[in-house]
Amino acid sequence: MNSPAQTQAARRRFALVPGLLALCCAAAGLGLAAHHPLSSWGAVLAWLALAALAARFWLQAPLILLGFLPLLGLAPWSGWISFEEMDLLALAVAAGGYLAWGLHPLSRRKHLAVSRRGLLLTPGLGLLLLLWAGAMLLALQRGFADAGGFAFGWFQGYQEPMNSWRVLKSFFLALLLLPLWLEAAAREPRRLSQSLQWGMVLALLGIGLAALWERLAFPGLLNFSSDYRTTALFWEMHVGGAALDASLAMTAPFALLALLRARRAWQFLALMGLGLMAAYVAMSTFSRIVYLALPLSFALLLGLRARQARMPGHSQVSAPLASEQRLGLALWGLGFLGAAVLVFVGGGYRGLAALMGAALLSLGLPPALWQQLPAQRRMIWLLALAAAGLLLGLGAFLAQVVPKSAYVLYALVLLLNLALLVWHSQRPPFLDTLGATLVLGAWMCLLGCVVVVAGYWGGWVAGAMAGVAVLTLALLFLVMLQRPSLWPWTSQDRNSWRRRGLTLTALLIGAAGVAALDGGNYLLHRVGNSQADSQFRMQHWRQSLGLLGSAEDQLLGKGAGRFLAQQYFSGLNDSHVGDYRLRQEEGRNYLRLSAGQHMLGSGEMFRIWQRVDMPQGAVSLQLRLRTSQTLQLHIELCERHLIYPDNCLVQQREIPAGADWQPLQLELGNAPLKSGPAYAPRMVAFALAVATPLGQLDIAELGLRDGQGRSLLANGDFSQQMAHWFFSSDRFHMAWHAKNLAVHLLFEQGWLGLGLFGIALTLALWNLSLGAGRQHPLAPALAAALLGLLVVGAADSLLDAPRVGLMFYTLLLFALCLQAGPEREASSPQSKEA
């Protein structure tokens, strides 16, 4: 046996590896933070705070990493794209986690048994990851070589060497964190898995809040007719792409799983609200592939979870529904959605809101309705229908005589329904029949008020359509009243409130979908244009893969990050996009701004821009520039979040050719800009573009002043390279992306990279559905998230967005290593100490 001194020495040696990793990550993280374009000291302090947080809660580090990920993207302010805040976050989590591990090492004997760990890296998986990392390094080297050799730069663009590192760094950051996840799983696997779940839920919350702000600030919360597609804080969509779509597809399944597993009412309600917000955000993307990805991933999650429920030892939150109850629930849901279509067409949002109020109250109808004799049930229904008919006639008359009376009447009947439900829940037993009659009568009257509201808003045709809808619902209810086994809510199930809440959430999401489809011309246009768009994309894929000429290119790819550059030099007009490069002359920087070869409409121009403060009064612009050809310079000052300028000051000025630098001063006028409300402020950006195809313009100095004499631009002489400057191609996106995940991987990494990716993904899905991880509580959500990303990946590249890549690779590594362990594990003193 080893002596205590030998044991302590072994512990110290074991702590050396994580300690060295912590030091390396700290050096890299602090070095990056010290070069942050916005504030080096602020970035250093924020990095230290994150590292300290990660060290204190290192067993829950996935919560910190994933929860902050969608919000930490400051490229439109900083100008950083090769490096970004995601790198600082990952390095802070790694440095803090490895430091805590090094300070609190455990001997192998004190880890949980292998069978009890939530994650296990087998030798086979280790070999696969080693081969995959080698293939990634080869793709990185080929990318550098294709760009003319490695050249470091803080602000390089998408055609320069550092772009190869930009698109691959997510994989290596995820690998860097893998040993930390494995060590946490060897100590407290349940805490680790919970942190992964809640990290993804927190990420979805961040996405939702950012998207709500964007919709409130710019197009409007209920505006589904304009072609404004939500981007949230995913700056990677400045040249198109589906970063938001992929993030929704990966995070939403974890929120659904958390909702299904929630045991406390407040938690259930909070997650219901999050689900509704996520559904709204998904609809506001106008992305057809998201509308397909989310239902498919949810179906997989529910299927895997249902199979888990049949496995021995699985605890269920609520009893499953009988087959007839499932049929009744489906009929009731479809009935309401069909009614929602008819009501919304004529009655608009007001009629739909009234119908959803009736849907909400239908979930509270008491089981006493089905406990009567058949004759009593028929009598109750007839009396309720008669009362509803009388109130409908009265309401229709009042709506013609008294303005707004339809809404007042609906509100009064709604309050009556609520009061009766509360009263009936506390009734004496002998009042069952009377109470049930009153409750059902009041609810039927509320259905009648839906017709009144719709007719008042949209006229008699809208009222007639709403009448058909509510009469159909009433008849459907009669069928269910005559067959009590169809009704899904029973008094015996104490957790039926959960099922009612889930049903209400589904109905509200369905109603929102009806409103978006019927009320949004843009969405209908996109749905109708699906076939033509798919043919255009297939042509784009064939053209892209046609650039893989040699056998070596097909096996190994053109190199990471080289898709845009290869398209640029392909000779096709539509692939020759705009660009910018920093140059030097006499020791001073200047910017060379180039236009693409394609047609340059307002949305197709390649812009460089900078966020500025809200200008006051008249705005003037000073430039020093030169060009070898006469061209048109496009200047704009607009309200802008990312790719949709609004309320602009726009000028186009012809710049004559000349070999010398030319000074230029322009009066742009008074900006018609609005700051927006405090809870949804609008942002302003100044932008420049060359509006002449293939035009090149050199810019040495820029100055922008408002009527109060304030200088609005930072780094106008480019002395800090591209700090504070950003770029976008607002509506010309195809040349920037392969628009398919498999095509993207095949083009940049060849069959080698695509094959290893496919093997890893297949093994992960096998492990979650049929392998060692199938009984793990997180397996359904992980499988659904991976499927969602694959579906979205059928229409976009995805992994050329680093934050999407880091989220995906983290989930993939968890899925590969996941194994089912006991739901509970004993907490050791060592784990509490850590």
TrEMBL record:
Keywords assigned by UniProt, alphabetized: Membrane, Transmembrane, Transmembrane helix
Membrane-spanning ranges: 43-59, 64-82, 88-106, 118-140, 167-186, 198-218, 238-259, 266-283, 289-306, 327-346, 352-370, 379-399, 405-423, 430-454, 460-481, 502-524, 750-770, 777-795, 801-821
Protein name per Swiss-Prot or TrEMBL: Uncharacterized protein
Naturally occurring in which organism (per UniProt): Roseateles oligotrophus
